[in-house]
Fatty acyl-CoA reductase (Anopheles melas), 286 residues
Amino acid sequence: MTVSMYDDEPLAQTGGQPDQPTPTTTGKIDEQLTAIQQFYDKCNVFITGGTGFLGKTLIYKLLTSCPGIENIFLLVRSKRGKDIFSRVEEIFDDAMFDKMKQACPKYDHKIRAVAGDCMQPGLGISSSDREVLTENVNIVFHLAATVRFDEKMKTAMQINVKACRDVLDLCHDMKHLKSVIYVSTAYTQCPQSVVDERFYDPPLESDKMIHLTDCVTDGMIEKITPVLLDKWPNTYTFTKAIAEDVVRKNSRGMPVGMFRPGIANSRVRISAFCSPSQGSSFRHHA
Ligand SMILES: NC(=O)c1ccc[n+]([C@@H]2O[C@H](COP(=O)([O-])OP(=O)(O)OC[C@H]3O[C@@H](n4cnc5c(N)ncnc54)[C@H](OP(=O)(O)O)[C@@H]3O)[C@@H](O)[C@H]2O)c1
């Protein structure tokens, strides 16, 4: 179900026409908007992985820097007995949002929870939610991933690879799409001594690896995992590298960019998001 975080007010049907003049939330044209604020103005954003470390940081940045954003849709699963609405509320319990709440007390009106799970086919999104997303979303960030190095290959393939394909499928159906960013990791290319801002050959082609994981038993895939990994140290970096191949092959005709951060944690400045020295990002026009 797609509803506002705290109430069931209907979603404003923006029709997603973000390239019009840029009235602010006050309705006035503001020529002082930065290029980035103009880009986001009146846009609806869809984020996967919003409950995670980088996802929270992204939500914070969008809410504080781009007040013209219409709605932020968050794909969230229920977890450990908590429903998606409690989980979305918990995102904002983090102290990092304290100042933002003072400056923008009505932030929650923009936050909309979408029930979904990367473990499910089609991200487990209901058909009604899918329609809301395809009709309204302009900008997509796909961050959801299992970041466990020792994740079972089948689970890592489902969350990191198949869900990435499902997100891109969803994006293909979006009627007013402006931008898609897939968050990878610099460690997908750990066999390289230097990583340039381009695609590299994957450890195995994504469609073949998906087919393999679909066909063999859990026990069998675990037995052959060390052979499959080859030069990759773990299932995390391996499946994220396969996901890059999914992005390369499934983004035809869409404005897709890929971001490969290095390590980002609370001790690394958030500007890592735009600092080439902390990772790399590039646009892909298939
Ligand atoms: N932090 C870093 O140093 C770093 C560096 C390079 C790249 N990255 C990339 O950045 C992205 C985010 O990383 P992070 O550090 O923020 O990781 P994180 O804190 O572990 O967050 C992972 C996010 O993915 C979501 N997720 C996992 N499995 C899911 C599922 N089955 N269905 C729906 N959502 C699911 C989690 O939701 P739940 O809360 O429901 O589990 C959480 O929101 C990842 O793609 C990662 O590869 C991170």
About this structure: Residues 76 and 115 are 5 Å apart (CA to CA).
